[in-house]
Specification:
Layout (H helix, E strand, L loop, with lengths): L9 H16 L4 H18 L3 H12 L5 H17 L3 H14 L4 H20 L3 H21 L5 H9 L6
């Protein structure tokens, strides 16, 4: 049984019903409908912490999906799962792929910055301040791009950049 038919709470059930109605009334190619169904099931699984199932659905959604904008969100969500699993290198690969298809995806830029910042903190703990500084500089560049796209979304990042003197560079 598809995940979309197993929703337990009212909001998920309502979303599923509305999405199913939209799929029926909006003219779409069958591939687009199939991609959306897999994407929706992936989001549902991801929200419940069922990452393996979510990844499987996202990979299936990528097959029929040809629109670069829609693919960017699938790739972004795959990156989120890899981030949650601590697989930062894999996550970055997917964030970069998402940004190639949709450069106006501030959340991918923000998450890339967070990983760079985390790597900077790891470098400090390992006693390598030069690598740490390079990672922090790289994080700052990604945060600046995210902030330029969505200035009100990343207040904490703006404050961090101001405190460290990286905001105006």
């Amino acid at each position: 049984m598809p995940r979309s038919q197993r929703n337990d709470n009212f909001i998920d059930k309502t979303f599923t019903i509305v999405a199913d109605i939209l799929l029926q009334i909006i003219p779409m190619a069958s591939g687009e409908k199939k991609a959306f169904t897999y994407y929706r099931d992936g989001m549902s699984a991801q929200s419940e912490g069922e990452y393996a199932e979510a990844l499987q659905n996202y990979y299936e959604a990528m097959r029929p999906e040809i629109d670069p904008y829609d693919r960017s969100y699938i790739l972004y969500n795959i990156g989120l799962i890899h981030t949650s699993n601590g697989e930062h290198t894999k996550a970055l690969e997917y964030y970069f792929q998402a940004l190639e298809r949709n450069p106006s995806l501030p959340q991918a830029l923000n998450n890339t910055a967070l990983i760079c910042h985390y790597r900077g903190e790891q470098a400090i703990q390992q006693g390598d301040p030069e690598i740490a500084e390079a990672c922090f500089d790289q994080a700052a560049e990604y945060w600046k791009q995210a902030i330029a796209l969505a200035p009100s979304n990343y207040i904490e990042a703006q404050n961090r950049l101001k405190i460290t003197g990286r905001f105006g560079e």
